Amino acid sequence: MNSELSNTINPGKDGDVTRQIKNEINVVPVLVESSSSCIMTLESTSYVTVEGGRYAGDFSSYLRDREKSEYHSQDQLYTLSQRFDPPGNVTLQDVSPKIVSSDDEQQNNLRQNIDSADGTEVQDGKNYKRKLNVEKLINKNGGKLLFILFIFSALNVCIYLMSKIALHMELEDGINCTAHDMIQAILQEEELGLPRSAGNVFSLWMCSGLVELQLKPHHRPYEIRQRWFELVERFSNASDSRKRRDEPSLSYQRNVFLLKKDEEQIKDQKILELLYEESKYNILEGRYPCEMMHYISLGAIQAKIELGPYNPQIHTIQFFRENQRRFLPGHIIKTAWSWLRISGKNSPEVGLLEQYKKIPPTTPVKKLVQKYLAFCWTLPFYGSAFFQGQVEQPVRGLTSLITHQDLLVLIAINSQGVYIIDHIQCTLLLGLKYKDMSWDYAKPSQENNPDCLPCLFIQFIVLENGTRVSKILQVFSKQAVMMDTLISTFVEESKRISDDLDGSNNTSTGDNDEAQMPLNARRDLGPSCLCNKLSKLTLATFDDDGHCIGKSGSWSFSY
């Protein structure tokens, strides 16, 4: 997997962000009679300075130039930031029209049909109702009048909330309905009871097991769904059969650009409950690494919220043993003692029961939700967008050389930094704040080779045997371009906030002080889970002069 490392550090600001949700549906057109909604419940290189945006050394034999225009070659549909590029006006090209005829005789017949159908609803052979609208367009080549028939069909759309509620909406003009329109429909749903301020907290996402996209307000979900296979081909290196099975779903989730300091000020209980449900999902899916003792404490809080007060007749060790997957992530359940018939005092089910019993029976759900979120807010990767990638593992012995495979990882990116997570073992491999790292995106050197992937280079400084050296990690992923774009957006925003604070002589930071603490110094979270594990990664090492003094894996062939 060879890649070319660019010496340009400032890519374009637009791209897509993404995320996964359990329930999957097909967002497909279903013709209906009217608009309504209802709710249903469902179970070379030296250190690169971010500020300067340039390399401190010259390694022309290793670095490769890229044309700056390449950064801006992406389709506008897949741009990222919701803060830029306000929605444009809808054009004829946006609707994907069907050209009916350009022949004079057929035009006359079409005119007669249009005169009787325009502005009315007609019945087709399948008893579906369609609303016809007509636009005219002059054919510049032949000078003939073309009639373009637009069929705007209603759509039956399901939008999932993280609270296992699905909002079923029948949209009269669903093909042209934007993400903003759907969000407004969610906020207007009385049974949900969400305040208008929720529009700044949550966004519409289209997600599957392979690609996760946060939609911009002017994106049309129907159009993106129609092009989903194209997106999967572009941003996933899964097998062809897996790609063909991939089905996205629409979900209403936390906006990745929401600052944690703003979230901590939210008082509305409906919003906090949705944020709690999303945090719970990330905890149970292993996206938020924690210590085992914290998983058990969080599981006990969840049990109190869902089960109510402790009942000794029901809530036994056997009960929690049978319901572990409901309250704990999978890697905890699969530990060595889980197969034993007799639960030891340190087993997860015993810990869950003991912690559950300690919660006062009169504790209100509101306080429990706040307690759960308060802990999650201390996690450095909280509120991240997640991307799929792979990293090389160090080769240890002849056997591992033969059976060696890349490690599949999640790359979590939020407003504070970048985090490489082994979500199977549920552990943090590498976590870096933006101020402590530099990065670059590189296209594959062999673009026609499916085994040659784009990559993201992450560079950081460490002390090794008392000497300051630079380490570089190579993350391989077809989603590297989206990671690059999101990092650039957050760094630019951080610079803007910093400049504003400097201008007002304010020395406070954009987030709370606790969020800026080193990973291994955060409260009582032990180093076994939230400290960097460089020994599990294949890294290249450079000295202050830019000389490579250590290499392995792909680096052995590229430098």
From TrEMBL:
GO terms for cellular component: plasma membrane. Pfam families: FERM_M, KRIT1_FRMD8_FERM_C. It comes from the Eukaryota. Residues 155-512 form the FERM domain. GO terms for biological process: animal organ morphogenesis; negative regulation of canonical Wnt signaling pathway; neuron differentiation. Signal peptide: none annotated. CDD domains: FERM_B-lobe (cd14473). This is FERM domain-containing protein 8. The lineage of its organism: Eukaryota, Metazoa, Ecdysozoa, Arthropoda, Hexapoda.
